[in-house]
Amino acid sequence: MSAASGTDVLKPKQYGPRVLQLREMISQPVVAAFCAGGVAGAVSRTVVSPLERLKILFQIQSVGREEYKLSVGQGLMKMWREEGWRGFMRGNGTNCIRIVPYSAVQFGSYNFYKKFFESTPGGDMSSVRRLVCGGAAGITSVFFTYPLDIVRTRLSIQSASFAALGNLPRTKLPGMWTTMVTMYKTEGGIPALYRGIIPTVAGVAPYVGLNFMVYELVRQYFTPEGDKNPSALRKLAAGAISGAVAQTCTYPFDVLRRRFQINTMSGMGYQYKSIFDAVRVIIVQEGIQGMYKGIVPNLLKVAPSMASSWLSFEMTRDFLLTLRPGVEDL
């Protein structure tokens, strides 16, 4: 009895008040989702970095710029021969710096917006409400991180072997911060860092909305009756399905985003006057398939990207939720 009492006396000394406050804070649903979203973004983008870069190189091609008019395998081999492992990872550091806050804000804001649509805390929502919450979360995350996205695009293509870029020095390419400062100084200040944001928002809102909506619906379908959660394999499958559906439905907006992001880049600018002008020019010069350039490597990356994203998100979030101090910690 005394030993047990002695153990109980020692309980309060295991954690100081600051540790308990920190555990209480990060175990809040919105905060846990925010932190887990950051982890999920970094994991998913690193896994598919070569395909992500190849997709961008496919997207920014037009008539007369066909150095990467290749199959996915040939494109990856060309990248490897010319640039090696660094070519596969080109722009991934910037992408991770962007995707961690982007994914964190996206998952965190989705859980925040859900509170206004749930009939009861943690209760179920209709598909339309999931779609609206996801769309709002996507727009929120874009506005916070868009300058890093446009810089990532520039970094992804500036070392590729496009003839139009032949006049650029190859010895030492500028990094993320240098590229951002150069764009700010030479291309119009803050607006230059948000070039292409309109087609981005137009594509991201339905993409993120569809992604969250389809994932939660498929996840429910994959959850065995009587269980609260599906297995890890089923979560991976749900993530792959949701990503494929969302990407296919919104892909033309992604092509427009990339084109506008390099609209003033020396040697590669397309000089589109507006979104509608860009759509018209692309379809006239490249056909309807021009709106889907790069979709093959994009779909190939969707399955491992979204699957790893959702699984790492749920695992990290569930771990953080368990950190909430219990009675035994007080």
TrEMBL record:
It comes from the Eukaryota. GO terms for cellular component: mitochondrial inner membrane. It is a multi-pass membrane protein. It is found in: Mitochondrion inner membrane. GO terms for biological process: transmembrane transport. Keywords: Calcium, Membrane, Metal-binding, Mitochondrion, Mitochondrion inner membrane, Repeat, Transmembrane, Transmembrane helix, Transport. Mitochondrial transporter that mediates uptake of thiamine pyrophosphate (ThPP) into mitochondria. Belongs to the mitochondrial carrier (TC 2.A.29) family. This is Mitochondrial thiamine pyrophosphate carrier 1. The lineage of its organism: Eukaryota, Fungi, Dikarya, Ascomycota, Pezizomycotina.
